[in-house]
Amino acid sequence: MSLTCLLRKRVHSPQLRFFKFYSPSSSALMLEDETPNFNASVPKTNTRMFHLVVRVFKTLNWSVAREIRFKGWVQSHGFSHSINSFRIIIHTFAFAGMHLEVFALIRDVLGFYKEENRDAFELVSTLLDSRYHVERSVVVFDVLMKVFASNSMLEHAYYVFVNAREVGIQPHIMSCNFLLKCLVEANRVNGVRCLFEDLKNFGPTPNIHTYTIMMNFYCRDVGCNVDIRRAAEILGRIYTSGETLTVVTYSTYIKGLCKVGSVEVAWKLICDLHCNNQPLNNHCFNAVIYGFCKRGAVYDALEVLQEMKNSGQLPDVYSYTILIDAFCKDGDDQKVRDLVEEMELRGIKPSIVSYTSLIRDGIRKNMPMKSLMNIIREISVSGYKYDQTIYETLIDGFCKQGDMYSAVKLLEEMSNNNFAPSAFCYCSLIKGFYKLRRFADALKVFIIMQKNGMWPDTIACNHILSIYCREREFDEALALSEEFQEHGVNLNPYSYNEFIHKLCRESFPEKALQLLPRMLKRNVLPEVINYSTLISGFAKQSNAKKAVMLFTRMTKVGITFNIKTYTILINLCTHYCKMRIAYDLFEEMKERGLYPDQIAYTTLIAAFCNNREMHMARALFDKMSQEGCPPNAITYTCLINAYWRLNRRNQAHKLYDEMRAKGLSK
Q1: Can you tell me the distance from the alpha carbon of 664 to that of 27, in angstroms, rounded to the nearest whole number?
Q2: pLDDT tens-digit map of 348-379
Q3: CA atoms within 13 A on the CB side of 586
Q4: Of 6, 80, 135, 413, which has the fewest CB atoms closer than 10 Å, so is most exposed?
Q5: pLDDT at 43
Q6: What is the DSSP string of 213-238?
Q7: Which segment of 219-233, 558-572, 609-623, 639-653 scores lowest on mean pLDDT?
Q8: What 8-state DSSP symbol labels residue 339?
Q9: Which residues contact 252 (CB under 8 A, 6 or more apart)?
Q10: Structural domains in the chain plus CATH codes
Q11: How far apart are CA 533 and CA 550, in angstroms?
C-alpha cells in the first residue's frame, strides 16, 4: 500500500477510532487527569508484575526492566495487562530521558505484534499517554517513529509522524531526519517528497541534516535520474534558511553535478569554495577527477589532482586509483608508473582496485600472465586477500591466453574461498574453451550456469549457438535462441548468422533466407555478415539470380560491403567469365578504403590464370607484395600451375624456387 493511499485511509478516520485503545488506568502519570472510580472492579493480575512495575517506576533500574519480555508477560498475564504495564514503564523511562531504554522496550513490543500478525498501527494510540497532556508523549512518539523506520515499516513510521501532528505533538527533527533517510534508502520517492513538504509547511523546521539528506536524494542515480535542478533549489534553501553548509552537503552537490556531466561547473564551484575558505574534502576533488576520467579527459583530471595538492588537500588512495585506471585504459604506461611511484612516496598503499586495474591493463595488452605474477604476488605481500573481482579478472586473463588449466585451478581456489562465480566468470570460461575448440567443456560450463540460474552474455551465447549448430539439430539450436531471448539476452546479427551459415553449409540457402524476416521481427537488423553468408550460399549453388538480388537489396538498404562480400561477388563474376566486372569490383573495393586480403587477390589471380590472362595475373601478384599483402602458397600454386600448363616452365620453376625460399610449402 502506498504512503499516500495509506494516509488518506487512516488520517481521516474518526477521532474516536484513533483513541479507541486509550485506557485511563494505563499510566501512573495520568492519575492527576482522571477521577478514579473506586466502585470499579480491580482487574486481577499477578503480584510479581505489579511489584516489577512499581520497582522500575521508583528506581529507573534498567537491569530490572530488561528482564521483562513482552511476549512472556502476555503469556502469563494476558495482552491487556501486559500492554498497560509496558506503557507505564516506557513513559517512565521516556520522562527520565532514557531514550535507548525506550527504544529497546518498544522494539520488544513491536516484535510481538509482528510475530502475532497484529495491527501495528494500534501502537500509535496505545502508547499515547494522555489526550490532555500530549507533550508527555513526544519522546515516545519520536522513538516509536524510529523503531518503525529501523524495521523498514515506513508506512507505520509516517503514520506516527502524521498522527503526532493531529494530536498536537511536534516530533523532534532528528527523528524526522531518520525517517527521511530511511525513505531515501528504500527509494520511496513519493514518501520522501511528501515528508519533506510536510516538514517545510508544518514543522519541525528542516535543519542542515534534513537538507543534506534531500541533496543526497536528488543527486543520486538510484531508481531515478539525478535531478540537479532540485538539488540546486535545496542549495538555495540552505543559503536563505541561515543554516551553515557542511562539507558533506557541498561534496554531495558536486558529485551530482559530475553525474550529469557538468564537470566544469563542479570544478568551478570547488575553485570558488577554495577562494572563499569554504570546507572541502577529498570527495569533492575525487568526484571531479572521476568525472573528467569518465569522459576521457585524463590530463584534465591529472591537473585537478595537482590543484588538490596545491590547496593543501592530500590525495587519498581513491584519487590515485581513479587516475591509474584511466591511464591504464588510455595506454599511458609512463603515467601509470609515475602515479604508482608517487603513491609509494606518500606512503599510500595501493588498493585492491588499483591492482585490478593494473592486471586488466596487462591482460588488455596481451601481456603473458606469468609476467603479471609480480603484481599478483605484490597483492599478497600488501596483506590484501583476493576479492571476487581479482579472481575473475585473472580467470578471464588465463582464458584469453588459452591457459584453461590455470583458469580452472583458480576457479577451484575461488570456490574454496567461498566466492560464487558470477555470470562474467562463466562466460570467460565458455569463450576460452570455445577458442580452443573444446566444445564439450564449453557446454558443461553452460549447463552449470543454467543450474545456477544464470545466462551468458551475447558473445558467449553466440558460441553456444555455434556449438549447437555444429553438433545438434537445427531446430534444437533455434529453440535455444528463443530461450536466450526470453531470459533477456540480446541476440545480434552474429547470433543469427550461426543458423544462416549452418543452413548454407548444408545446401539450404532458401531456408536460410527465411531467417531475415525472423530477425526483423526480433528487432535485429541484418548486417553485412548475414548478407555475405547468404550470397556465398547461393553462389555455391550457382544461383546467380538470388545472389545478385541480395547484393541489390544490400545496396538499397545502405549496407556497406566488406572484403568478404566483394570477394564472393568477384568469385561469382569469374565463375560466369565476367572478368571485366570482377576487376572493376576489385578496384571499387580499394576505392572504398577496403584493402584486399590474400583470399581476394588469390581469387582474382586464379580467375585470370584460368582465363590465360597471365599478364593480369602477374600484375596482381606483384601488386600484392607492394601493398603489404604477401602471397601465400595457394597464390604461388595458381601461377605455377598456369605457367606449367602454358609450357612456360622457366617462370614456373622460378616461382617455385621463390616460394621455397620464403618457407612456403606447396
Answers
A1: 102
A2: 877 777 777 777 777 777 777 776 766 666 66
A3: 27
A4: 135
A5: 45
A6: HHHHHHH--SSS---HHHHHHHHHHH
A7: 219-233
A8: H
A9: 212, 215, 216, 219
A10: 386-471 (1.25.40.10), 577-666 (1.25.40.10)
A11: 11
Per-residue pLDDT of 69-113, as tens digits, reads 888 778 877 888 888 878 887 887 888 788 888 888 888 888 888
Q: Which of 183, 182, 187, 145 is nearest to 162 (CA)?
A: 145
pTM for the model stands at 0.58
Q: CA 269 to CA 263: how far, in whole Å?
A: 10
Rounded-to-integer distance, Cα 630 and Cα 497, Å? 30
Task: Find out whether 129 and 117 touch, Cβ atoms under 8 Å.
Answer: no
What would the grid cell of residue 230 be? 532540485
Query: Can you read off the three cell numbers belonging to residue 424?
Result: 562474467
> Is the sign of the CA dihedral 542, 544, 549, 552 positive or negative?
positive
Cα-trace Rg, the chain: 38
Whole-number Å distance between alpha carbons of 282 and 318: 9
How distant, in Å, are the alpha carbons of 88, 490, 511, 515, 536 from that of 485?
A: 61, 6, 22, 16, 28
Residue in this structure with the C-alpha cell 566468470, named with its chain if needed? 425
> What single-letter amino acid sits at 56?
V
Positive or negative, the CA dihedral 430, 434, 439, 440 is: negative
**632 closest CA partner among 608, 597, 607, 604:** 597
Q: How far apart are CA 414 and CA 421, in angstroms?
A: 8
3-state secondary structure 563-629: HHHHHHHHHHHHHCCCHHHHHHHHHHHHHCCCCCCHHHHHHHHHHHHHCCCHHHHHHHHHHHHHCCC
Residues 6+ apart with CB under 8 A from 518: 496
For 141, the grid coordinates are 512518539
Q: What is the DSSP letter of 666?
A: -
Q: How far is CA 638 from the centre of its chain?
A: 55
Percent of the chain with pLDDT over 70: 86
Residue 188 dihedral angles phi and psi, to the nearest 5° = -90, 80
CA distance 239 to 512: 68
Structural contact between residues 236 and 202, judged by C-beta atoms closer than 8 angstroms: no
Answer for the pair 191, 224: CB distance below 8 angstroms, yes or no: no
Report the amino acid identity of residue 180: L
- What is the DSSP secondary-structure string of 360-393? HHHHHTT--TTTTHHHHHHHHHTTPPP-HHHHHH
465 to each of 481, 491, 607, 636, how far by Cα in Å? 7, 11, 36, 37
Q: How far is CA 116 from the centre of its chain?
A: 39
Asked if 455 and 449 touch (Cβ cutoff 8 Å), the reply is yes
Residue 325 near residue 357, CB atoms below 8 Å: yes
Please check whether residue 94 is in contact with residue 143, taking contact to mean a CB–CB distance below 8 angstroms.
Answer: yes
For 383-401, what is each residue's pLDDT tens digit? 667 788 888 888 998 898 8
What single letter denotes the amino acid at residue 82?
A: S
Summarize pLDDT for 270-308 with one digit per residue, the tens. Answer: 998 888 888 888 899 999 999 999 888 989 999 999 888
The three cell numbers of residue 602 are 588469390
* Gap between the Cα atoms of 119 and 17, Å rounded: 14
Q: Which residues of 178-212 are buried (b: 16+ CB within 10 A; e: fewer)?
A: bbbbbbbbeebeebbebbbebbeeeebebbbbbbb
Which residue do the cell numbers 531475415 mark? Answer: 516
